[in-house]
Amino acid sequence: MTAVMVTTTITTTAVVTVFITTIIIPPPITSFQIFPCYKPIEKYKVEESEWAPQNKEHTSPKLWQIHVYLPGITAKDKEKVKADILELTTLVVHGEAKYHSHCSSWNEVVHSCSCTLVVPMPFKISFKIPPKSKVEKASAIFESEVLVIRIPRE
């Protein structure tokens, strides 16, 4: 969007000077990363993947929350995981996590691995953000192998 501002100056000799100033107003930010840090996104491309880690979605009238279980990912590895909000309507969690061939139930607090295969793999999960969500107040934390994303609702 471009706005034009016209300034007119009249001098004592009756000469009219017109200055035209073009002000470029940037479009509002509609896509941004919320984890591991906040930053606007201009162009977006994430490769599709066939695998995604376990996740749970919780919705209430006041809060929408996503839990993504990332066994074997430590605090130092969390930079390999990203959470993005696209066009204010979609949450995409993507990156690299450890695929476990026979993970035990997610209800356990700590992952005790007896898997036959553990391999780093790319992943991508998309969620439709519910109506009346306040995406500008989205937050994300990584704790005990779980990425928790919270978005307040009206």
UniProtKB/TrEMBL annotation:
Residues 46-154 form the SHSP domain. It comes from the Eukaryota. InterPro entries: A-crystallin/Hsp20_dom, HSP20-like_chaperone. Belongs to the small heat shock protein (HSP20) family. This is SHSP domain-containing protein. It comes from Smittium angustum.
